Amino acid sequence: MSSSNPTIEGVTEHDIANYLANNPAFFERHAELLASVQLSHPHSARAVSLQERQAEMLREKIKGLEQKLIEMIRNGQENVAIADRLHRWTRALMLTADAAKLPGVLLEALRHQFLIPLAGLRLWGARPEFAEADFAQAVSADVRSFAESLSHPYCGINSGFEAARWLGEGNTALSLALIPLSVQGRSFGLLVLGSPDATRYTAEMGTEFLARIGEIASAGLARLLQLQDGDGGATASTDGPAA
To answer: Where does 95-161 have alpha helices with state H?
Structure first.
């Protein structure tokens, strides 16, 4: 602006913008400006009126809102589908009356409902009658310590974890999700999910859903355990997990 004009000396673009924002009647009094002011079109070299430019901005804003709405609907549909699969998996566990069959049902339903290529499980402290079962086979002290150290599921590249061997001989797991199992604050097992896709389970992914899987699995599998009573003696759990 020219400093020779005393009426606008020191006036900034911010001042003008504030004036127009607080005085919408200005354009009613000077309606001809809406048609006469020419602006550059954002996608071409031609000039457009202020009204046309405003309409273009509104169309772009509406388009952006439509895309966000579509994304929200898609996310909502995906969440509903996940909730349905979680419900069917949980129901399969609850309908399994034979405790000895529960680990197998848990893994098979997990693989089927969530399209998980590989899944394995180990429990320590299982009741004596399950000593020969695959899920009750011995694990190293390192595995137990690792499970006890987990405050939430671990996701990442398979860097030679012992738990990866529970997925079967010759498995091609490149990424893993390791989900700790616990009851009454005591760690008693580890659920491992594997995939030949190195990006299926990554350190950056959220673990809230996997933690929910671990909580449900822990509640169901606790009835296989030989729990400790208040005096330190061993007691067989036959009626499900304690509250």
So the answer is: 102-114, 141-149
* Cα(34)–Cα(52) distance, integer angstroms: 9
Residue 113 contacts by C-beta under 8 Å, 6 or more apart in sequence? Answer: 85, 86, 88, 89
Residue 10 and residue 178: Cα distance in Å, rounded? 65
Domains delineated in the chain: 13-54 (no CATH), 116-236 (3.30.450.40)
Q: Are the CB atoms for 180 and 199 separated by under 8 Å?
A: no
Give me 11's structure tokens. Answer: 């006036």
With helix as H, strand as E and coil as C, how does 64-98 read? HHHHHHHHHHHHHHHHHHHHHHHHHHHHHHHCCCC
pLDDT tens string 91-131: 999 999 999 999 999 999 999 999 999 999 999 999 999 99
**149-173 residues labelled b (16+ CB within 10 A) or e (exposed):** ebeebbbbebeebebbebbeeebeb
SS3 197: coil
The pTM score is 0.67
